[in-house]
Design a protein that fits this description.
Number of domains: 2
Strand content: 15-25%
Order of helices and strands: HEEEEHEEEHEHEHEHEHEEEHHHE
Radius of gyration: 22 Å
CATH topology of the largest domain: Rossmann fold
Distance between the termini: 55 Å
Strand order of the largest sheet: 9-8-7-10-11-12-15
CATH superfamily of the largest domain: NAD(P)-binding Rossmann-like Domain
CATH class of the largest domain: Alpha Beta
Number of strands: 15
Oligomer: single chain
Length: 374
């Protein structure tokens, strides 16, 4: 048998979470998930609520492991009349049920776990608040540091144990995989992934610094690719489907002069989302996009993107910060100030599966005629 490693425990936990989910009979939301916790100390107690697995070969293909665990759970159900409250895997650890499927299910995202990249800003805060209010467990990921810590502490004031901050660099494959593994070992797995990490640059094409452009490529394109790829692997291993939301931008259909690096790399991110919707539908993984116009702040949290480019946009238009926000509101048909909560509501529509939709985009821009077709 292989030696114990964190990824093995995370992998087994994902599979068990999928097997312990309850079928709902609803084709749009086919499973009601559970929340798990795990420990790398195997449980040798004789508690009748604990299922012991002593002959699991950890080096097998995931489907073989799933089949072995499913057979063991089915046998346990036949003997005890219910699914186990804990699963102890010899030489690996114990995975315990923290919250059951359907237990006090008052909200549409009850027991769902959502991971947001680049969370510690205005849009991440808006989406996070909306998801938490609808029963979700939230994983806020961003680069390590004070910004992520303050963001997490802010949401903990109301969300308490249902929010965790996990440092993650979307440009590093091992960092992305490590963050997902940490979530699996804490709550059992992930159901929703929101790809929000992104950076911007103001420059004309003829004056573009290619090295700075490549930084945008790393975050906006490679970050999207690595996150979608890891989310897909996690969802397929769990076996209960999943939802991916790509935070796109109005600059995809309607780019701006001097904003080519951001517009082009976000267009590539958007296209990766569309292609992922084609590839992942067979696993009941839906991939959709939300495309906001400028979001400046939400609560105490300012947009990192506008911190980068706001001064230039103000200079170009001869406006202060308040005037710039008014400019963006006045240019849309509804004269609306776009907020992080608006973006969160659009994401909520997709992840609560109100319609059988994948590969689609919701504009969150107040109505911009030059961003059509809508």
């Amino acid at each position: 048998m292989e030696s114990k490693t964190p990824d093995q425990l995370a992998r087994i936990t994902l599979i068990i979470r999928g097997l312990l989910a309850s079928p709902t009979g609803n084709q749009d939301i086919p499973y009601s998930p559970v929340i798990l916790s795990c420990s790398d100390k195997a449980d040798k107690t004789s508690d009748e609520n604990t299922m012991h697995v002593d002959s699991l070969q950890l080096d097998q293909e995931p489907e073989k492991i799933r089949e072995h665990l499913k057979d063991a759970i089915d046998t346990y159900v036949t003997q005890h009349g219910s699914k186990p409250k804990a699963v102890s895997v010899s030489n690996l650890g114990v995975i315990r049920l923290a919250h059951e499927a359907g237990d006090n299910a008052q909200h549409p995202l009850h027991n769902k776990v959502a991971l947001i990249t680049g969370a510690a800003g205005a849009i991440g805060y808006g989406i996070g608040r909306v998801f938490l209010e609808n029963g979700c467990y939230l994983v806020a990921t961003d680069l390590p540091g004070e910004k992520l810590d303050k963001f997490t502490d802010d949401l903990k004031q109301t969300a308490h144990e249902k929010i965790m901050g996990v440092p993650m660099d979307v440009t590093r494959e091992e960092s992305v995989a490590g963050a997902f593994q940490r979530v699996s070992k804490t709550w059992g797995g992930v159901d929703i992934v929101v790809i929000n990490a992104g950076i911007a640059l103001v420059s004309t094409i003829k004056e573009m610094d290619i090295e700075v452009f490549r930084k945008l490529e790393k975050v906006n394109i490679e970050g999207t690719l690595l996150t979608i790829a890891e989310a897909a692997r996690q969802f397929i291993l769990q076996g209960t489907g999943g939802d991916i939301i790509v935070v796109s931008t109005k600059n995809v259909p309607s780019p701006s002069a001097g904003f080519s690096a951001y517009s082009a790399t976000k267009a590539a991110s958007h296209q990766l989302g569309r292609i992922a919707s084609l590839e992942l539908a067979q696993y009941d993984i839906r991939v959709n996009m939300v495309a906001p116009d400028g979001v400046f702040s939400e609560g105490q949290h300012k947009s990192g993107l506008w911190a980068e480019v706001g001064k230039d946009r103000m200079k170009v238009r001869g406006l202060d910060e308040k005037g710039l926000q008014e400019y963006y509101s006045n240019r849309n048909l509804l004269k609306a100030k776009i907020t992080g909560r608006h973006v969160g509501n659009a994401a909520l529509f997709f992840v609560t599966r109100q319609t059988p939709t994948t590969g689609a985009t919701i504009p969150v821009d107040g109505g911009l005629p030059d961003a059509t077709p809508r």
